[in-house]
Design brief:
The protein is an alpha/beta fold. It is 40% helix and 14% strand. The strands form two sheets. A six-stranded parallel β-sheet has the order 2-1-3-4-5-6, sandwiched between helices.
C-alpha cells in the first residue's frame, strides 16, 4: 500500500468538464482506492458538493503535507505545479506537446509509450513510470461479437477528420452502407459499439490542429473489445496498441477507392477483418483494470520512495537544457577544427 494519501486534481466533475480525460482520472482514483490510506478527488476551478477545493486545502495545510498530489489537466499543469511547490506531486501525463518544462524532481506517470518517450526526451532525469489507461469492464462482453449488429459503420463526429465526414461517409452511403454519425455524449458507449460492425476513427487531423498528441485513444480499444472491425489513423499513442492490417486497418489508406473497397468488404464479412482471438485477448488483458491496478501499485511505490528521498534532503537531478547540449556539440566541433 502507498505510504501517502492520494489526491487526484481535476477542474471539476460536472457536465461542463465531462471528457475522456476526466473519466480516466475518476477511474484511476477508484483503482487506487485499495492502494493508499485514502484517495480523494479534489477540484480546483469549480466548488462542488462532496469534493474538497484546492485553494482551501493549500490555506489549511502547511508544506509538505502528507498527501501525494496527482495533476493531469495539460494546460493547467504549470500553474498547478507552482501552487503545489514543496509538496509531493506527480504528473499523470495524457497528451504531450503542451510545451512546458517540468520542475526538477517531478515524476511522470505516462499513459502511453508515446507520451513516455516524449518525457523521456524532454525530462530524462525525472522519475518515469508507464501506467496505461484501463479498459472499463463494460467493454469486455464476450458475447459482443455474436450480437446482431444493426449499424454497418459507426462514426463519432468529435475529433473525426473532414475527409471521413465529408468524403468517405457520403461515398459509403451511396453504396448502400448504413452509416451512423454519432455526436454528443453517449451514456452507454459499450451498447453503441456492440451494435456496429465497423468503427471509423480518424483523429490525426484533429490533434494536428490542436498542437498536442493523442495521449492514449481509448475508443479504438473499446471498439475492438466490443467486437467491431476498426479502421483507424495511427497517430501518436494509437500506434502503441494498433498494428496496421493485424489489429486494425488504416483509414485514409492511399485513396478513397481503397477505403471504400476495404470498408464495404469488412461490412460484408467482419470476421475476415477482426484481429485473431489470441492477439485481441492479449491486447485487452494488458489494459484490464487488474493489470493497470498493478501498474499503479508499482508506480506509487517508486514515487513515494523518490519523495521520501527528496524530503530527506536529497537534491533532485536536473536535465541539461537542449540549447546547452547543442552549443556544447558545436563548441566541441570548433575545438577539433582549431
Amino acid at each position: 500500500m502507498s505510504s501517502r494519501p492520494l489526491r487526484f486534481l481535476v477542474p471539476g466533475t460536472s457536465a461542463r468538464f465531462r471528457c475522456g480525460g476526466l473519466l480516466v482520472e475518476l477511474q484511476s482514483a477508484r483503482l487506487c482506492a485499495e492502494l493508499a490510506p485514502s484517495v480523494e478527488v479534489i477540484t480546483y476551478r469549480q466548488r462542488e458538493p462532496g469534493h474538497l477545493f484546492l485553494a482551501d486545502l493549500l490555506q489549511q495545510e502547511a508544506t509538505p503535507g502528507e498527501a501525494l498530489w496527482i495533476v493531469s489537466w495539460g494546460f493547467d499543469v504549470p500553474a498547478l505545479l507552482r501552487q503545489l511547490r514543496g509538496r509531493p506531486v506527480a504528473y499523470h501525463a495524457h497528451s504531450s506537446g503542451y510545451g512546458f518544462q517540468l520542475p526538477p524532481g517531478v515524476p511522470v506517470l505516462a499513459v502511453s509509450r508515446n507520451t513516455l518517450g516524449y518525457w523521456g526526451d524532454r525530462a530524462p532525469r525525472a522519475p518515469l513510470q508507464l501506467v496505461p489507461n484501463a479498459l472499463d469492464p463494460a467493454f469486455g462482453n464476450t458475447t459482443a461479437v455474436a450480437k446482431t449488429r444493426t449499424i454497418d459503420v459507426l462514426v463519432q463526429a468529435r475529433k473525426t477528420s473532414s475527409y471521413v465526414l465529408d468524403c468517405l461517409v457520403p461515398a459509403l452511403r451511396k453504396r448502400g452502407v448504413a452509416v451512423e454519425v454519432q455526436s454528443g455524449w453517449v451514456e452507454d458507449l459499450a451498447a453503441l459499439f456492440s451494435s456496429a460492425k465497423v468503427l471509423l476513427y480518424d483523429s490525426a487531423d484533429y490533434w494536428r490542429s490542436v498542437g498536442v498528441t493523442e495521449g492514449f485513444g481509448l475508443p479504438p480499444l473499446e471498439a475492438l473489445a466490443s467486437g467491431c472491425v476498426l479502421f483507424s489513423s495511427f497517430n501518436h499513442a494509437l500506434a502503441d496498441s494498433l498494428d496496421p492490417g493485424v489489429s486494425a486497418w488504416q483509414i485514409g489508406c492511399g485513396s478513397l477507392a481503397n477505403d471504400l473497397e476495404q470498408i464495404t468488404a469488412a461490412v460484408a464479412n467482419p470476421d475476415a477483418f477482426r484481429p485473431k482471438p489470441e492477439l485481441l485477448a492479449a491486447l485487452l488483458a494488458a489494459h484490464s483494470e487488474s493489470k493497470v491496478q498493478q501498474r499503479w501499485q508499482q508506480a506509487l511505490n517508486a514515487i513515494n520512495q523518490h519523495w521520501d528521498q527528496l524530503l530527506a534532503g536529497a537534491p533532485a537531478l536536473k536535465s541539461v537544457p537542449s540549447w546547452r547540449l547543442r552549443w556544447g556539440r558545436r563548441l566541441s566541433r570548433l575545438k577539433r577544427l582549431f
